[in-house]
Amino acid sequence: MADTSHIPYRFLQDPALYRIEQERIFQGPTWHYLCLDVEVPEGGSFVTTQIGETPIVVVRDNDGSVRAMVNRCRHKGALVCVEPRGKSPTLRCLYHGWSYHLDGRLRLVPFEKGLEGKGGMPACFNKEDHGLIPVRIEIFHGVVFGTLSSEVEGLEIYLGPQMCQQLHRVFHKPVQVLGYYHQVLHHNWKLYAENARDSYHATILHAFYATFKLNRLTMSGGLVVNHDGWNTMNYSIGASLQEGEYDAKELRSVMPDIGLAGPQLLDHRLEYPDGITVAIQSIFPTCVHQQIYNTLALRQLVPLGLDRCELHWTVFGYADDDPELRTLRLRQGNLIGPAGYVSMEDGVIGEYVQRGIAGSARDEQALLLMGGSDIASVTDSRANETTVRGFWQGYRTLMGAALDE
Amino acid sequence: MSDWMSDWQLQLRIQRLQTRYVHILDEDRLEQWPALFTADGCYTITTRENHQAKLPLALYSCTGQGMLQDRVTGYRRINVYEPQCYRHQISALEVEADPAGGWRCRSNFLVVRTLQRGDMSVFATGSYRDRIVEQDGELRFVERLVITDSRQTDTLLVIPL
């Protein structure tokens, strides 16, 4: 088995690996969160997104089915749909007006027969051969996933049983989008993928969690891994225990003299019978699904180059939220996103790593030894990096020998 | 006093409130920031993307001076970020009387953010939508809605706009 407890810094710095990742990770046997089906409510509704660098459009066809295509005109390669979200009876490229049906078939090429018999496309040109490239999708409880791979197993097998259960737990009834955040991060995309799986940092770096007892490693909770560690979840149950552990550790994150002047920020409602108050689920490679108290969100990470990436947050509630619950969710929006009390640090910490590893030698590496070196679910302690090792298990498996060159 | 004189005086008074506001933020005197609002004043930062789509999610969503003070506590003591400062440019103030009392104003802002190593960038531009009232002889914000033109936040947002 590959070493997942020692990760060379060069994995985060090598432009050649970045190119190979696009092919083997993003175009490889992986599933990617694309959007929610409620974001394409009617025939002609579309959402533009990406799988890695590849532009994707998700469309609702007039027959009600959801489809996804590579958002690239078959003529010159221009984007067909440009807006983040919209509605259109056909998909029409602006450049030369090539127009596609909602299922991706090419329907019109302006001047295909030329003018008065002169010019135009050759007689052998067949529009049926030039539809938008279809993208395989699966919709699980209203969450649309896509893959550029024809080989990858079905979505539910890929996710694993507990990952499916967690999506079912949150998406058990219709959701409603409350808004979006978009955050540009100045580091390699894998640092965020690690960060989201890292339960060790969460209550130390994010002092707000520990100070207000929202999440502490001493609370009961656990780490879950599925699919050989590729997909993971870190959860905690919001009853505080053994507070002395924190107070004795001289953590910056515990400041007993700090109180809130607006304590309504922490008002919340237990929504799920399991009592879990914080659950962060990571689906390999770049999807994060969060429940932090009453805030529910899907985060999609898109690489923008070797040391830049963008995090797209879709924050939602349930369509049947009562006004009080809706107010709680929106007020708790202060906790999350680029300005969130418990998440803003993640915007900069990866950049500090990227800057810190500059100039490192080829054999310098990160240590992921908390809790040993295996990759397995843990129910008795979250002082453990097993979920981070799980990410690197997926990464090493797909990248293979390219990492040794 | 003629109407144009009183309009002009009002415009100047509101400009003075705006000026105090930006100096408090840009000179890192954030402890004075909540007092520019009424006790139950609201402060919201959202993006044009969310605002135009009538999506209620915001980056900052504070109701009452207490929640504003907590943002200052977060900035001073709890949150981790690269040390930074803002420089605001404000312009195009438009004032109209609010039938419900006080005034409704809008103005433009541009914020340049400077990080500790000297990196400078246009961090945000957008529109302030304000509701302002007079209390004890002072103008205060009942509501300040900040709508950023860009949907993106570079790295993080810790200091209010």
Could you characterize the architecture of this molecule?
The complex is a heterodimer of chains A (405) and B (161). By secondary structure, chain A is of the alpha+beta class. Chain A folds into 2 domains: 36-139, Rieske [2Fe-2S] iron-sulphur domain (Rieske Iron-sulfur Protein); 161-404, Naphthalene 1,2-dioxygenase Alpha Subunit, Chain A, domain 1 (Alpha-Beta Complex). Chain A is built from 10 helices and 19 strands. Chain A has helices spanning 15-26, 155-159, 161-170, 189-197, 199-205, 207-211, 243-248, 323-332, 345-356, 386-399, and strands spanning 6-8, 32-36, 45-51, 54-60, 66-70, 85-87, 91-92, 99-100, 106-108, 134-140, 143-147, 175-185, 221-226, 231-237, 276-283, 287-292, 295-303, 309-318, 365-367. In chain A, the strands form 4 sheets. Chain A has a 7-stranded antiparallel beta sheet with strand order 2-11-10-5-4-3-6. In chain A, strands 12-18-17-16-15-14-13 form a 7-stranded antiparallel beta sheet, with helices on both faces. In chain A, strand 3 and strand 4 form a beta hairpin. In chain A, helix 4 (189-197) runs antiparallel to helix 10 (386-399). Chain B has 161 residues and is α+β, with helices and mostly antiparallel strands. Chain B has a single domain, classed as Roll (Nuclear Transport Factor 2, Chain: A), CATH 3.10.450.50. In chain B, 27% of the residues lie in helices and 45% in strands. Chain B has 3 helices and 7 strands, in the order H-E-H-E-H-E-E-E-E-E. Chain B has a 6-stranded mixed beta sheet. In chain B, strand 3 and strand 4 (103-115) form a beta hairpin. The longest helix of chain B has 24 residues, at 3-26. The N and C termini of chain B lie far apart (36 Å). The chains are: A alpha+beta (405), B alpha+beta (161).
